Structures are given as structure tokens and as C-alpha cells.
Amino acid sequence: MRVWDAGESEGRPVMGWIGVEQVQHHPTRKRADFLCGSCITKDLDQPIQEAKQMTALQAGAVSHRDVDWHAINWHKAHTIVRRLQARLVKATQGGRWGKVRVLQRLLTHAFSAKVLAVKRVTENQGKRTPGVDGILWDTPEKKATAVRTLCQRGYHAQPLRRVSIPKSSGTGTRPLSIPCMHDRAMQALYLLALDPIAETQAEPNSYGFRLERSPADALAQCHTVLALQQSAQWILEGDIRSCFDGISHDWLMARIPMDKGILQQWLKAGFMDKHVLYPTEAGVPQGGIASPVLMNLTLTGLERPIKGAFPAFQGHTRTNVHGIRCADACIMTGTSPAFLAQAVSPRVAQFLAERGRERSRDTTRITHIGDGFAFLGTPGRT
Hints:
By secondary structure, the chain is of the alpha+beta class. It has helices at about 15, 30-45, 45-60, 75-95, 95-110, 110-120, 140-150, 180-200, 215-225, 250-255, 260-265, 290-300, 305-310, 335-355; strands at about 160-165, 175-180, 235-240, 270-275, 275-280, 315, 315-320, 320-325, 330-335, 365-370, 375, 380. It is globular.
């Protein structure tokens, strides 16, 4: 995600910005001048307070007045959110995590971010699918009321509604957990403050569930690293088993850079299946707005350590180690099957085990590129 900070300073002194004429400095001052200055100071109290209120509104602070959904300036809301996200990106790149937390709190409490969160969950494909409470935000009045309910204090996530959908392969079903509208909006709100960090930390060859990227880009990268004459001839291919369902909650609570209380509410909400409440001890729900980003943050770091451990050359031998991942599907390239099995595969297994994941035994194999391989349902061969 590319985020630009378009904000510029107006180049005016503070007193000029709030509309107060500056007092001229004279070489000599009389006692009467100081008395007059004290009178001016008292008169300026009201304009200063008004300026502070105006600054808070420009920063996107929540107003307690009634919200008119049709009167919202969406362009201004997007601009305010993007400026705060740009500052988040810069703070993350500089490793200033204290400032990151401050900016996240400012963004998640901003009126502009809250209206965009409600807009997202009421205009996507799931806008007519209710959660366990059966509530939908299908009118402007309900949407406006929902904006005022997005608060951190007293927030308690409701259980997810579990449904089963058929797999694309036609064999079996896949569990889908649906949050209620309020929880979806809270996830969309906090995702505005988490997504810039996830994109900043993401690896260059990760393509699943990311803005401006697609599976087609992953396939194009496969062609780039495998089409040359000196390219690697062996591939370690495989999927991550139950990628969403088994992610360690302890790992997420310790590593995900967001409000821990809100994150714990999402992870421990439980789910309702046939009117029975079940606890959630691991994983993130397939159906939550924030789940793809949490999954990507969990798998961030799979590529860089392996490429760092195996430079382009070992002596006079080219290693040709490359990693490409799209969601839970990934491939690793190498010069020989022994190199992939003894050097690369154990590192991948250790990385996944730390996060409570493992590779699927059915799809994990080492293949020569001449025999062909399948990645994202697309066959590859030279």
C-alpha cells in the first residue's frame, strides 16, 4: 500500500493562525503597556479555546452531535484517515513504537475513521448477512447511530455465527464464522490503524490478501525467478494446513501491534453452532474483516530469514533460494532436492511451529521443474 502524506504547514505563527493580531515589540516598555497586555490576555482566552476546538474537529475527533449520514464529507474523511496512516507508516519505518501507539489511538478514536468503518461493513457483500443478534444496519438512521457506538470503553465482542459452506474443490465443507455488524465495524475501524503497519512490514513476495496485489502477481513472480537459464530447477511446494484455524493466540497477543484488549475480545469471542456456544482456543475466524491481515502478520518473516541464511552464492555455487507466498500457498526454490530437504524445509517447519502452524502433508513435496508443479491451481513447467 502506498500512502502519501499530503499535509503541509501553512508557515504562519500560531497567533496568526488563530486569528489574533501580534503585539509589536518596542525598545522601551512602560508599566501601562504591561497592564494593557494583561487585559488583552484575558480577552484572548475565548478565541484560544475556540481555536483548540476547531483543531480537534479538523483532526477528526468525534462530535457528540447527531450524525447526518447524507451530509458526511467523504472526501475529507478519506483525507484525514490517509494522513494519519501516512504518519503511522513513517513511525513504523523509524521503529518509533511509542508514537505508533499514540497514532493508532488517535486514528481509532477519530470520527472520520468511524464513519468509514461503518460505510465499509454496510456496503460490502456481507451487508445483508446478520450475526447472532440478527441486526442489520440497512438505513441511514441506523448507520448514523452505529457511528456513535464504536467505542473502546465497555466493548465486548459477541459470539460468531458458524455456518458451513461447500469447498471450491467440491469435497467437503468449510466452516465460516460470521461476526455481528457491530463487531465487523470495530474490526474495520482497528484495521485502519493496523493495515499500514502490516503493509510496511510485509515481505516483497507476499501476494495474498494485500492491496494492489493478486494471485496473478504471484504467478508472474514465479515466471521471473524460474524462466532464466541459470534459475533453480527444484521446488519445495506445499500449503499451510488450516492456516486460519490454528494460529496460536499467545503468539498473536504477544506480537500483533494493536490494542491487546480489543484483540483478545476478537480471539476469545467463541462461536454459536446450532444454538450451542463453543469456545475458541486457537485461530482467527474465516469471515472476519481483520482475519486476513492477522494471518499475513503471522506469516510475515517466512521469506527474509531463509534468504538471509542462504546468500546468492555459497562459494562458487549459486543457491537460487526464492520464496513466493500467496495466502496459505507457498513455494521455495533451490539448486537440489537435498538442499531443499535438509537446509530449507527444516527452517520453514520451525518458523510455522513457533506460530502453531504446520505444512499440509498431502500437498508438500519436492518437485523438479521439468516434471511440472501446481501453484494456486495453475500448472508450471519448463
